[in-house]
Structure formats: C-alpha cells, structure tokens
Design goal:
This protein is about 85% helix and about 0% strand. The protein is mostly helical. The chain has one domain. α1 runs antiparallel to α6 and α4 runs antiparallel to α7. The two termini are about 20 Å apart.
C-alpha cells in the first residue's frame, strides 16, 4: 500500500504544482492559451492510447463504450451545475477545468491503484505522461480563477482538495483491486475518456484557441506528439 500511495502522490502532484505556478507569477493570456493547447494535445493522446485503446484491450469495447457515455454525461451534468451556481459568472472556464480534472483524475488514479495492487510494474513514462497532461489543466484553471477575482487562498485550497482526492482514489483502487474485473477496469477507463472528451471540446480547446491565437493548433500537435512518445515508451 505504501508503493501505491507513493505513486498516487507523484502522479497527482502536478495538479497542485500547476496551481502554485499560477500563483507564483502573472501569466499573459497568450501564454495560458499555449499551455492549454499543449495540455489539450497531451490529453487527446491520453484519451486515445492510455484510456480508450487500453480499456478495449483490457475489458472490451462494450465496457469502454458504457464508460464513455457515463463519463460524458457526468461531466456535462456537473459542469451545468457549476454554471448554475455561479461558476459561469466569473472564472467559468477555470471551474470547468477543475471539474474535468476531478472527473478524469479520479478514474485514472483508480486504474493506477488497481494496476499496482495487481502486481503490475509502473512505467516512469506513463507517470510522466499523466503528470504532463495534468499540469496545464491546473495552470490554466488557476490563472482563470485568479483573473475572475478569486483569492489566492481559494485557488490553493481548491487544488489542494482536488490533489488529495485524486491521491485517495489511487488508494481506493488498490483496495478494490481484488474485486475489479477487466470489464470494470475498462469501464472506469472509458468513464475518464468520456469526461475528458466533453471537457476538451466544451472548454479547453476553445479557451486555448481564444487565448493562444493562431499558434494554438501547432502547440497542440507538440503536446500530442510528446504524450504519444511517452505512451510508446511505457
């Protein structure tokens, strides 16, 4: 369990690190846009290779398909709730990115915990890929929340909670490893992929293009290529 907790901390720590980087300096909108574009590319690769493809190989297409639908509906619903409660009046994209980080981070960490408890060897490349994809979400969300008038304490507290929840999800995955069938694991991976896809189209990619300008597409390709390379190494 110590090993599971350690890797959970390592993989989720980029969420808190991103918030700290956003608090450390003022980030210009074009820079934030390019960071989001890079993260979007990395997340597209993660959805394709680490979640959907791996899920199909693990438990079949049906389980992944069910998970995709549930994850998409879960993000859509949660984001609408955030908007109705005031998230859309200021820092709406930041709140949406936070919801996305939770809804894809929790399943990812659960799958990580299941794999470690089952005796699988964790790949450093895989951990780096998760780290790289999480970091832009946290930076972009935190910067947007700060511009919307949220306090530094609020932003730090929010991402600390998200980080702790994701770490605990790794531990839960380890505890549930004996009960997790291949179909269940594939469904969890599909859930994360579905939540990510809706978040990417609704929030992350539009924000990246709006703030990053014409270079956003090129930076997205760089993020995608790097994440693909890390996935192949793992």
């Amino acid at each position: 369990m110590t090993k599971i907790l350690l890797w959970g901390v390592v993989s989720a720590s980029s969420l808190l690190l991103g918030a700290l980087l956003a608090l450390a300096r003022d980030w210009h909108r074009p820079t934030i846009g390019r960071i989001l574009a890079f993260g979007a590319g990395a997340l597209i690769a993660s959805v394709s290779l680490e979640l959907a493809e791996e899920g199909v190989n693990t438990g079949g297409a049906v389980a992944v398909g069910v998970g995709l639908a549930l994850g998409a509906v879960a993000y859509f619903t949660a984001n609408r709730v955030v908007e109705r409660r005031g998230g859309g009046s200021g820092g709406g994209s930041g709140a949406a990115l936070t919801v996305g980080a939770l809804l894809d981070g929790i399943p990812e960490q659960v799958v990580l915990g299941v794999g470690l408890a089952a005796g699988g060897e964790i790949s450093l490349a895989l951990v780096v890929a998760i780290f790289v994809s999480n970091l832009p979400e946290a930076i972009g969300s935190s910067a947007d929340l700060l511009r919307a008038g949220k306090t530094r304490r609020h932003v730090l507290t929010q991402w600390s909670v998200v980080t702790v929840v994701c770490i605990l999800a790794t531990v839960v995955g380890g505890l549930l490893a004996e009960l997790a069938t291949p179909g269940m694991t594939a469904g969890v991976q599909g859930f994360a992929a579905g939540a990510l896809l809706v978040m990417l189209i609704d929030t992350m990619i539009p924000e990246a293009r709006e703030q990053g300008g014409e270079t956003a597409g090129l930076v997205t390709v760089v993020g995608f290529a790097l994440a693909c390379g890390l996935s192949l190494l793992s």
